Amino acid sequence: MGGRRTNLALLFLLGIVFVTGWLAFSFYAWPSRFALLVHSVGGLAVVALLPWKSMLARRSLLRRGPGAAVLSGLLGALLLVSLAFGLLHSAGWPDLWTTPGLSSIPVLRELTAMDLHVGAAIALLPLLVWHWLLRPLKPRATDLSRRLLLRAGLLAGLSAATLAVLPAGRRRLTGSYQLAELPVTSWMLDPVPTLDAAGWSLLAGSRHIGYDELAAFSDRARAVIDCTGGWYSEQEWEGAWLSRLLPPAELAGALSVSVVSVTGYSRRFAVDDLPRLLLATRVGGSELAAGNGHPARLVAQGWRGFWWVKWVREIRVEGLPWWWQPPYPLQ
Questions:
Q1: Structural domain that includes position 269
Q2: Per-residue pLDDT reduced to its tens digit, 133-190
Q3: Cys staple from 42: which of 17, 184, 204, 262, with CB 3.0 to 4.6 Å?
Q4: Could you give the number of structural domains in the chain?
């Protein structure tokens, strides 16, 4: 009975931390902060239950075949990796190349602790589903007894108290660390293209705009880009507001605009958001670098970094609502 309830508690907690982790990716300010707090408390509760789970796993391995043992071991290893790098990020070591004992590992020089935390979590998800299908757990009425609810409350309280005393780096509401310089990052496997500004043009609705014409605009915005890789940077951006680039007649009756990259990457925004969206050609007084979106990138203040489309080639006026798209880009 105790083993079943431990497994049930772990399944519930892993579901909570996975959902809240992605919610923290989605939002920008206080909603992200709330999701992050629940995510952190849930993660520490998982850590607290691991000693009991390890005893259950040892007994189970004696009864099951080697194939199941390998998959279960891989699931456990990925969980430990995700927890370890989540703690590293929270403690103030987001850049693994500056972390003692890890800086000598070549592959970690290109990754952040957040990259490995999230990557391991995504990789363990199918294994977790397999584990649940192999040995399904169903809640029972007795699982809501007063004693078990008190134990759950005690676990949550101890996890929250542990979170309060653990070392933590100076982070903003989303959990990201500030960087003075603007790093070069891409969502998933989106490549950095080589573009010649002289041969590049923007299609804004039905209007074609060359680089020189776009660069002549000097609309400015001081905006914070907050990347899901665990960093943020405040910069002075210069370019043109999207509301100035699209023909007004084409916006009549439209519900959204899609900002499309030369790589095929895109994000859709409500028409009402146009006055807050800047298509930038310069940052910090200098022309954009290739890795940061040259010739033009979107500046979407109030949205997480994956909304800031780089290497923009087209702005499409559409009749679809802005939310008619995957919550996260699929490339």
A1: 197-318
A2: 877 777 777 777 788 888 888 989 999 898 888 877 778 878 888 888 888 888 877 8
A3: 17
A4: 2
